[in-house]
């Protein structure tokens, strides 16, 4: 058995080592990439199948996301087959087989936009900055549209901190027209001095590669190329290029020019040569170019702050989305992308201001708050928005969004107002219905309830529904008052008739108070007989005597201190107990005490007078 374990032990150890190796490889794939694996170029943007629009490449984005320090970008643009990739390798001190791919064929080697995976760490104004070098697909190559070139150019312009415009020999008019998008961006985003900008402009470095360095300097060459060209025939294209020239001249403090001689006459063999084989003047100027780039490079600033790797990828995604919008890239789409976050902040300010007002409120009050909140949102937009010419579209969009939110507030205010007014109206309606069926009718109590109901409705019912509910309320109250007055006299008359009969019974059988019985009979006869013979029922209600009766009734039935309608039953019960007590225990008095009403006493039974017969 022990020998068996000995035979299997090497196999088990081998399997364990294999599992550990697989686990380590999986861990490396899931975690941070190996630094050696980043020592190469990665695509971050690739052309789509139609070679008209751009799409992101995830492997390059992962290389950027890991960067935690502020990022700066040195981008190189220019015609295809102009040596951009070789130039970047020279700036990075990389050989062709290790650095960016360099092609010697007629078609372009670089597709889309590529970055070098390992950033160059620099100290800029005392802060550590990671500088990414960016290679772009050359324009004017075969099989591509001008729109695609414009998107590549525009994306490189926006992403770069230093934009090297690599041109062979001289500056052509077509090279100037290529900068139209950069000029538009400059006019839209960089013309707001003293305020935060969407992103700081890239330093434009005109790099002219030529064989001769005598005569005019490259700066003179660039300045002459930017001079306006006479246009006596009114050619539209010349006018457009002249406008670009004017704008570039204004941006002169943000650009510089540099010349670089050809490294060697045998250009197809440059990748196989070392520095000692290259032209000494080229090597010297190359090192000067490195120093120049290092001196002007700055961290990428977007909306007032630097970008780390994750921020830069998010920024790239936004820019690419804007440039892919529509058939052609436009600065207007870029402005909308940058202003989107600002619009959200402005709408948030507006909503927070409006939410501070509890609904419902009067319409004029809501309108006043809307104007104030709208003013604050517009002030914030004017202070923070991006774009000079295209910002008007974002302003209109903000206005439309605020109108939508305000309409929602109007609808909510109307709903809450209707809900509240309906509740108060129903309460008043129930109150009026209750006053119609009082056990003891009282005009004073009805008027008090009527006034209280009307005042509470006027106080509590606010908002746009108040006017319509006030009309309903007035009709309901008028109808209730008319109905109450109509029933009030009839009920009071019936109550007085009933009261007189009850007093007759009480005066005769309960307390045997003859005077009370007589008064009760007089009231009953007056109400039932006299009024029917001489007055109509309606005319009775206008008689002064009836008014005296009504006033007396109101005093008895209702007062702010005592509401007899509420306490009628307890009072009747208490009086009944009192009368019962008096009847049961009140007869135990001395026989000598006489009655106030001897009319109902049998005086002959107890008389001591002698009979006369």
From TrEMBL:
CDD domains with a match to the protein in the record: GBP (cd01851)
Superkingdom, taxonomy of origin: Eukaryota
Signal peptide: 1-30
Pfam families xrefs: GBP (PF02263), GBP_C (PF02841)
TM spans (from-to): 567-585
Domain GB1/RHD3-type G positions: 68-181
This protein's UniProt keywords: GTP-binding, Hydrolase, Membrane, Nucleotide-binding, Signal, Transmembrane, Transmembrane helix
Keyword ATP-binding among record annotations: no
Gene Ontology MF term list: GTP binding; GTPase activity
Family stated for the protein in its record: Belongs to the TRAFAC class dynamin-like GTPase superfamily. GB1/RHD3 GTPase family.
Protein name per the record: GB1/RHD3-type G domain-containing protein
Species in which this protein is naturally found: Miscanthus lutarioriparius
